[in-house]
Amino acid sequence: MLIALKIIHMFSLFAGGAASIGNGLLLKKVIASNAPPPPMVAQTMSVIGKIGFGAVILLWLSGLGMTLGRHDIAALDWMFWVKMVGATAVLVPVTMMTAIALKAEKTGTRPDLKRMKTLGSIGRGGVAIAIIFGVLAFN
Q: What is the value of pTM for the model shown?
C-alpha cells in the first residue's frame, strides 16, 4: 500500500508542477496581451487548472495516507510541520483559483487575473517550502 501511495504522490507532484508551470506561462501571456485569451487558450487553461487541482487533492490524500500509515504524528519533528504549512499554502490558493475559474466559466466572465497571479505566486512559494522541508523532514 505504501508503494502505491508513493507512486500516486510522485505522479501527482509531476502533474501539479506541470499544471502550475503551464498555466503560469499562459496567464503571464494573457495578462501581457491585455485582451481576453482566444477560446482555445481559455479552454486549455481551464483543463490544466482542473488537472492541477486534482493533482493537489491527490497529493494531500496520498501524503496523509503515507504519513498516517507509517509515522506517529506526535513524533514528527518541526520540519514536517513546516512542510505541512507549505502544503497548505498550495492547497488554499489552488482551491481558491479553481473556484474563481469555475465561477468565471459559469458566468461567462473573465476571472480577476491579478488575483489569480497573486494566488499562483503564493502557491509556488508553498511548493518550494513543501518540497524543501519534505526532503529535510524525511531524510
A: 0.87
